[in-house]
């Protein structure tokens, strides 16, 4: 069949504005197991677009309004955490930041009472039923569709760095997977999951979306679950590859870095097109080793430790004039990452120290830095 004709309006946003979505697991305060506490949260906080249900009743999504920069986004995220935490504390429950739950099984999770989720499960079956995973989505405002596509093309080679610094899902159903970011392997089961593609321009993306819709592959753009995608309703480029970061400071660093790179990608006139096979290999290395990965520099093809690459890249961004205060949120974490590793290593070390998942999860909550913002 020929390519269907379709237009998708792109709602322009102020360049560089931010919106952030975070997916939190609800856990029992003693055992650390996932519990279906989300409905009680929604009953207590009322109907708000800032605190929303996810596929399972053991997961709560918090998301910001449109923000001007990372510190503003972090302030609102801390306020939303406080609101949800206050409800859960009354039930001896808590929020856990992790890409996967270290031990709870997807089979034990209750599906939220939402028509869209039931339709999703009917279509995707076992693939969707396993989606007991949590990530962070960062929306960066773009002025128009062509600029958004340009930024997405330019960001493709850098996506594995986003995964490496957020990698925080080393366990799956109580098993050490050997991966730093096992969450991303669950997403690969989707027909529209995984890496996005290079596009010529916004019209090319419209044709792709129209083709998928006309063939019954998707119902709308919302059914495209690539690890980075345009969001025409919001007028943003949405970066979705990251695991839920391990701590408040890691979250700030992740958001600030994604924002800086997205803005640079939109403003740079040209960048070399990197073959998808190299991007895919770096994505695997980030999935396997996280912050300790040695990647293939996408532009020189030399092997380099990911933190060395990141440090050099931050200097380039600083030289290009990106906000020093935002870049400092990233660079201030590098020494800690070098010394202690990222979230995946932290989880493994906590388990090796405690040899008990309940104690490990309590320690994860104590170290995440979010609860300090509630005091």
Automatic annotation (TrEMBL):
| Protein's GO biological process | modified amino acid biosynthetic process
Q: Name one Pfam family in it.
A: GCS2
| Coiled coil start-end | none
Going by the entry's taxonomy, the superkingdom of the source organism is recorded as Bacteria
> Which GO molecular function annotation, any one, does this entry have?
ATP binding
Reaction catalysed by this enzyme? L-cysteine + L-glutamate + ATP = gamma-L-glutamyl-L-cysteine + ADP + phosphate + H(+)
Tell me its EC number(s), please: 6.3.2.2
What exactly does this protein do? ATP-dependent carboxylate-amine ligase which exhibits weak glutamate--cysteine ligase activity.
Tell me its family. Belongs to the glutamate--cysteine ligase type 2 family. YbdK subfamily.
Kindly provide the name given to this protein in its UniProt entry.
Putative glutamate--cysteine ligase 2
Q: Give the organism, scientific name.
A: Mariprofundus ferrinatatus
């Amino acid at each position: 069949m020929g390519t269907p004709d379709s237009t998708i309006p792109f709602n322009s946003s102020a360049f560089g504005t931010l919106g952030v979505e975070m997916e939190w697991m609800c856990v029992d305060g003693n055992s650390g197991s996932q519990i279906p506490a989300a409905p009680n949260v929604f009953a207590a906080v009322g109907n708000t677009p800032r605190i929303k249900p996810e596929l399972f009743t053991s997961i709560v999504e918090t998301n910001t309004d449109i923000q001007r920069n990372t510190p503003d986004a972090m302030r609102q995220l801390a306020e939303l955490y406080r609101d949800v935490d206050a409800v859960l504390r009354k039930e001896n429950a808590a929020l856990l930041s992790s890409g996967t739950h270290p031990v709870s099984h997807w089979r034990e999770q209750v599906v939220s009472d939402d028509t869209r989720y039931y339709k999703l499960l009917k279509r995707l079956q076992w693939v969707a039923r396993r989606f007991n995973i949590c990530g962070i989505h960062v929306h960066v405002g773009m002025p128009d569709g062509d600029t958004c596509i340009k930024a997405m093309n330019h960001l493709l080679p850098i996506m594995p760095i986003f995964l490496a610094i957020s990698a925080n899902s080393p366990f799956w159903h109580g098993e050490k997977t050997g991966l730093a970011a096992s969450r991303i392997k669950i997403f690969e089961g989707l027909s529209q999951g995984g890496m996005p593609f290079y596009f010529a321009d916004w019209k090319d993306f419209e044709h792709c979306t129209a083709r998928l819709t006309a063939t019954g592959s998707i119902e709308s753009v919302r059914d495209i679950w690539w690890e980075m995608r345009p969001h025409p309703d919001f007028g943003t480029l949405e970066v979705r590859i990251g695991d839920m970061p391990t701590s408040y400071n890691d979250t700030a660093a992740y958001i600030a870095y994604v924002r800086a790179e997205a803005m640079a990608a939109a403003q740079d006139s040209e960048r070399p097109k990197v073959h998808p096979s190299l991007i895919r290999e770096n994505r695997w290395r980030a999935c396997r080793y996280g912050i300790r990965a040695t990647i293939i520099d996408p532009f020189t093809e030399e092997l380099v430790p990911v933190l060395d690459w990141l440090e050099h890249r931050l200097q380039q961004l600083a030289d290009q004039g990106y906000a020093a205060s935002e870049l400092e949120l990233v660079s201030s974490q590098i020494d800690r990452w070098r010394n202690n590793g990222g979230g995946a290593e932290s989880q493994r070390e906590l388990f090796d120290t405690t040899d008990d998942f309940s104690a490990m999860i309590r320690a994860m909550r104590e170290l995440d830095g979010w609860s300090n913002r509630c005091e």
